[in-house]
Amino acid sequence: MPARLPRLRLHHQSLRQRPRLRWLKKLAITALPHCQAQAKHADAPLLHLEEIEITLVSDADIARVHGEFLDDPTPTDVITFHHGEILISADTAAAVAPEHGHSLDQELALYLIHGLLHLGGWEDEADDEAAAMAVAQQNILQHCLSILPVQSL
Questions:
Q1: What is the pLDDT of residue 153?
Q2: Helix 21-37 crosses helix 127-147 at what angle (to 10 degrees)?
């Protein structure tokens, strides 16, 4: 694991949801070394980035980016760019969180970890890869929640 962690910047655009950004940033800082430790290969972007920018956006915004870069104009939960940018749909998180028994903040944390793992070289195109990635992100989330419960702050 690298001795130095990239700087994390967390932003949000005008959102209907009100996530707890300070808590989410603390969770990201807690998750980062665990995601780095699980990088799939030595040249994974997560191991070499100076900075990671995480932006919470609306479904409309993420659908626009999804269409422009991935030829799919529908909303999605997370889009990760290897240059260190992670876009997370707060609208999708708010809609899906109750189905998973999560709060909005917990669902956003899961998406954030998912994005970090993508930067670590994880893929989820194939079913077996997606299943392995889901286990890894859930383990990291549970570890982080044991240190920084959702109720904190």
A1: 43
A2: 120
Residue 43 tokens, joined: 């040249």
2 C-beta neighbours (distance < 10 Å), count: 12
CA–CA dist 86, 109 (Å, integer): 12
123 CB neighbour count, 10 Å cutoff: 12
- Burial class (CB within 10 angstroms; exposed 0-12, middle 13-18, buried 19+) of 40: middle
Percent of the chain whose pLDDT exceeds 70: 95
Q: Per residue in 107-144, pLDDT tens?
A: 999 999 999 999 999 999 999 999 999 999 999 999 99
**How far, in Å, CA of 90 to CA of 30, rounded?**
21
- Distance, CA of 24 to CA of 26 (rounded, Å): 5
CA atoms 26, 31, 36, 40: torsion sign: negative
Q: In the CATH hierarchy, which fold is given to the domain comprising 7-147?
A: Collagenase (Catalytic Domain) (3.40.390)
- pTM for this model (two decimals): 0.93
- CB atoms under 10 Å from CB of 48, counted, come to 13
